[in-house]
Automatic annotation (TrEMBL):
<dbReference type="InterPro" id="IPR041698">
    <property type="entry name" value="Methyltransf_25"/>
</dbReference>
<protein>
    <recommendedName>
        <fullName>Methyltransferase domain-containing protein</fullName>
    </recommendedName>
</protein>
<dbReference type="InterPro" id="IPR029063">
    <property type="entry name" value="SAM-dependent_MTases_sf"/>
</dbReference>
<dbReference type="Pfam" id="PF13649">
    <property type="entry name" value="Methyltransf_25"/>
</dbReference>
<feature type="domain" description="Methyltransferase">
    <location>
        <begin position="78"/>
        <end position="168"/>
    </location>
</feature>
Length: 243
């Protein structure tokens, strides 16, 4: 199905419009979180972004499973921008058991809690401000749909790196067009990924475009391996490095 076919289907168009409203130009982070809280009411978010139109959760979970072929029950994961918990549901199908989540939208988190899949949930924005989580806590941070207008800034990626162990993975998927349409990312996100790779803070294992990520639009999946030691990623209050 092409995006043109999405435009021709009024029901799908309604879902697409609801999604566009979460990404209006110039939205402040607090507005984004409020929008999602309202959208989550009566499970409308899950009804709108069902797997027929939004494949992000299954895409990212499959990549995480490829990254951890054995002993998945022992892997410590954090789902960044966990929303209502769709990524956690997909991860648990692969045998992952220890999953934490972070999201700033209270309404989304409320629903996430009802899934009983997540161990700890944090109501926080992922940004340059350090999360209340110790450095090197997780084997893997996953994120689907957390990047967009007013969503996770580039500095949030560095904060994810801080809370992942040396040798651990960050796997995130986002809509391809946001990489140039969202000012925060255009000419910044990929250069920052390259720069920190040259500084040996992580290694870019993969950057791959995926078809049909959301509303028949392409996504991009990134897989980073964290390096630490003398090359630690710092977002600590007294040593915040900006992207
Ligand atoms: C499209 S939803 C994706 C939710 C879930 N990952 C999924 O795939 O269904 C985007 C989520 O990003 C969250 N979000 C927005 N800004 C964020 C930030 N700075 N840090 C963490 N999460 C954020 C929103 O609250 C929302 O729950």
């Amino acid at each position: 199905m092409s995006f043109h076919e999405t435009e021709e289907n009024p029901q799908v168009m309604e879902k697409y419009t609801a999604n566009c409203k979460a990404h209006r130009k110039g939205m402040a982070p607090e507005e984004v979180a409020e929008y999602y809280t309202t959208w989550a009411e009566n499970q409308q978010y899950d009804l709108d972004l069902d797997p027929s139109v939004y494949m992000g959760p299954s895409i990212v979970a499959k990549e995480a499973a490829k990254g951890f072929e054995e002993n998945r029950e022992k892997v410590r994961l954090i789902d960044i921008a966990c929303g209502t918990g769709r990524v956690g549901i997909e991860l648990s199908k692969y045998g992952f058991k220890y999953i934490d989540g972070v999201d700033p939208a209270e309404g989304m988190l409320k629903q996430c809690q009802t899934s009983h899949i997540y161990t700890n949930l944090y109501k926080e924005f992922v940004c340059e401000k350090p999360l209340p989580i110790a450095e090197g806590t997780y084997d893997c941070a996953v994120c689907s749909g957390g990047f967009g207008e007013g969503h996770i800034p580039c500095s949030g990626l560095k904060e994810m790196a801080r809370i992942v162990k040396s040798g651990g993975l960050i796997i995130f998927v986002m809509r391809k067009e946001y990489m140039k349409d969202v000012e925060e990312y255009a000419s910044k996100l990929e250069p920052m990924i390259s720069r920190l790779e040259h500084e040996h803070k992580w290694e870019l294992l993969e950057r791959r475009e995926v078809a049909n990520y959301s509303f028949n639009k392409d996504g991009v999946i990134f897989k980073l391996r964290i390096k630490r030691g003398e090359h630690a990623v710092t977002n600590a209050a007294n040593g915040t490095e900006r992207a």
